Amino acid sequence: MQYKKFQRRKFCRFCADKGILIDYKDTKTLRNYLTERGKLIAGRMTGNCAKHQRELTRAIKRARNIALLSFVEK
Question: pLDDT tens for residues 36-56?
Answer without folding.
Answer: 999 999 999 999 999 999 999
